[in-house]
Amino acid sequence: MMFGAIYIGLSGLNAYSRGxxxxxxxxxxxxxxxxxxxxxxxxxxxxxxxxxGLALTxxxxxxxxxxxxxxxxxxxxxxxxxSDRDLDLSVDGNGFxxxxxxxxTLFARTGSFEVNGDGHVVLAGTDYRLATLGADNxxxxxxxxxxxxxxxxxxxxxxxxxxxxxxxxxxxxGDLKVTDAGGTQHVWTAAFAKDAAATGNAWNVTVTDAxxxxxxxxxxxxxxxxxxxxxxxxxxxxAAAGLDVEFDFSAGVTSFSGGEVSTLRASKVDGYAxxxxxxxxxxxxxxxxxxxxxxxxxxxxxxxxxxxxxxxTLEQRQGGVFxxxxxxxxxxxxxxxxxxxxxxxxxxxxxxxxxxxxxxxLILIQRGFQASSQIVSVSNDMIQQLFGxxxxx
Length: 393
Prior knowledge:
The chain is of the alpha+beta class. It has 3 domains: about 1-75 and about 350-390, no CATH class; about 80-145 and about 305-350, no CATH class; about 155-270. It contains 2 helices and 30 strands. The chain has helices at about 1-30, 355-390, and strands at about 40-45, 65-70, 80, 90, 95-100, 105-110, 110-115, 120-125, 130, 130-135, 140, 150, 155-160, 170-180, 185-195, 200-210, 215-225, 225, 235-240, 245-250, 265-270, 275-280, 285-290, 295-300, 305-310, 315, 320-325, 330-335, 340-345, 345-350. The strands form 8 sheets. Strands 5, 6, 9, 25, 26, 27 and 28 form a 7-stranded antiparallel sheet that branches. Strands 14-15-16-17-18 form a 5-stranded antiparallel sheet, with no helix packed on it. A 4-stranded antiparallel sheet has the order 8-7-4-29, with no helix packed on it. The chain is rod-shaped and about 135 Å long.
């Protein structure tokens, strides 16, 4: 039985050594982005075959020692730390980002992404493509190659706001930048001149181009300081540039007395030139979005998030990536769904390792190892004493 005690003590040394390895891995990854720590547990061994073949088993099923339990990952969310990259993504909630690697589907809680040479958004340093939700709510990869350029849109409307003083004789709104269908920008000037020959508050609006050539002249009238509906929308066309633009004065333009001071301005000019991609990021709704140099944005679709009924079916791989190694139910959802949380741009999830917990486990493991080594030492002393008795006999 003393030999059995040695083997039981050895099982403790082996188990606590492996437990120390788990704690060491947790502590070493204290600052690893997206790392999920594993808890350390121990379980007793009884019956034949216990202790990995180390222990001697009694007929009554006496204890055979101890072994380290299978470490279970803690999926408690780590701190979301701010970064300066639009494609540093994390999930504020329970969901997992979906990564596509050929026929394989992998998962991640956070990661630094980039656009590769093929135009796909991939996890930095890998070929794992970030997935968005397709029309059938299944994850699909996407490429931005066909959307690197934002096509131009011709200007069709210029909207005006504020007051054109009835006490002034003239006023000019300059630097009206309008764009033709080919993306070329033209600068117009709108000159307002009081029509002295007309009864009431009437103005002649003359539009000229950058060279001073007249585009057209239209009449603008006010009644009681409010723009006359019949003249609230005036059209100006430049056939050579292919432009047909409506000047809209219906959005609250007034003409009250303000001395000679007018505040009339162009509040909105639609249309824009061609643009190139300036950024890729997720918006507040968790959708991937392209930004262009012309101020336009294009929605590429919702970032796919996976919701697992049992995250314990996931195995942690290198680089903060998880793979589902055993059967388990999961659903693919958009970040607007409360079951998965929200995709956050410019955020990286820190490790969830609790250092105080790890140091507590470290002390317990150390004490367990010391106690197990003492069992081996005492058992060895008893066996030596027994050999000494036999020698005296």
